[in-house]
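In this supplementary section we document a worked example of the pipeline. Step one takes a protein sequence of length 63 as its only input; no multiple sequence alignment statistics are reported here. Step two produces a three-dimensional model, which step three serialises into structure tokens for compact storage. The input and output of this example are shown verbatim.
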Amino acid sequence: MPELVANLSTIEEVAPVDDFIRLRLISGLTPRPKEAVVKGLPRSLYGVHIYLSGESEGMYIIK
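The serialised model returned by step three reads:
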């Protein structure tokens, strides 16, 4: 499993808008309108998103 770890990175900030929308969709969560995401993400208390091989693959956000 060392290959996976080598390509994994975490960033302590909320995910970019398009990644947030895409990750909600593929995880089966309710879609959010882009306008609401643009307005709401900057108001988050804390966020982390995970990149695997350069693509955003996960996120955690505290509102």
